Amino acid sequence: MTRTMLLRLGAVLAGAALLGACQLETKSAKQSGYRGTGMDQITLASANKKIDPINVAPPPPYDPPKPGGRPAKEVYQNVQVLGDISEDEFSYTMAAITQWIAPEQGCNYCHNPANMASDEIYTKKVARRMLQMTRNINTGWTQHVKQTGVTCYTCHRGQAVPTENWALPAKGNPDTILGNKNGQNAPMVSTAYSSLPNTAFAKYLLDGNSSPIRVQSNYSHPSSYKATANKTTTMETEGTYSLMMHTSSALGVNCTFCHNAGSFQPWNMSTPKRVGAWYGYRMVRNINGEYITPLASVFPKHRLGPQGDPLKVNCTTCHRGINKPLNGVSMVKDYPALRPTAPMVTAAAAPAPAAAPTKMP
Questions:
Q1: Which domains does the chain have, with CATH numbers?
Q2: Is the dihedral of CA 220, 214, 199, 247 positive or negative?
Q3: Residue 52 and residue 27: Cα distance in Å, rounded?
């Protein structure tokens, strides 16, 4: 064997070794735009055959009760949220919530069995606020959840604490000269194992501390001229890219699920999914800012993050790697108590869907 042949063989073997860690199985591509624009959604062939049990919706605890009967607030004491539903529907909903959140601990996870009306256990106070949040999502954020809606199981999946969560990272880092890596160079699953800032969630997914997500400019060079103003820094683009990487990983999609590969910026060239994502980010801000963060004083220390804030939600909390949580199955249809007829709180901060594309930051 000649020296040239040996070199070629070595190159082939080296290439095979490098590709060994890649996903070499068959892939499928579905075109979502005009031919030649690169608007293809790439998925692994196995993804269409395997169904992760975590993404399978559980059945109701028993047959839903018939309408009618005394309101729960007239039967039980201290019912502050679900008092408007019947006694039978209340028991049915509580049985489901127990399966969704604390199947092993049972009712005692939130209640004192000697006094079910007592608020002495912190989890009951948290559960009450989470029920208000769920009702709000199903009535005030239909621009994102549509009529599919959500239930407690959408996030919890049989766990008392949703496994997909985040909190503000600890301040400072003794392993660096300055004592602070600013959230970078610490690859984590929430940012698709990139070294991008892991503080992007706090920047974009918290009420009152959210910056415009879009950082694209109409001009290529820094400028203060109004018509071509470009004051975007590289640091700002890193935060946006970190969030986009998270979204792509959370939904199991590539960029063209929302964007047009020919031009990422224009809304009139994007897919309708981008509008849904825009509302989704704002829904998450509302969840974290209005419902979870204010519970910091209710949670014990072991349920708080490094900076003393509660564990919050992001896209993965619900989606778990697929673009439609629980494969699009609507569980809320079996639990009308979680979607009251009249909205609890509307998404007043969000513009009307028709006007959304022209106002999105």
A1: 67-359 (1.10.468.10)
A2: negative
A3: 18
How many helices (H) does the chain have, and how many strands (E)? 11, 2
- In whole angstroms, give the CA distance from residue 327 to residue 56: 7
As a whole number of angstroms, the distance between CA 273 and CA 281 comes to 12
Amino acid at 101: I
> How many of the other CB atoms lie within 10 Å of CB of 143?
19
Distance CA 8, CA 108 (A): 68
Q: What is the pLDDT of residue 230?
A: 64
What average pLDDT does the segment 204-223 reach? 73
Between 121 and 37, the higher pLDDT residue:
121
Asked if residue 344 has pLDDT above 50, the reply is no
**What are the distances in angstroms from CA 216 to CA 206, 230, 233, 263, 274?**
22, 9, 10, 11, 16
Give the mean pLDDT of the chain: 81
Please tell me the least confidently modeled range out of 73-87, 163-177, 202-216. Answer: 163-177
Structure tokens at 232: 């975007």
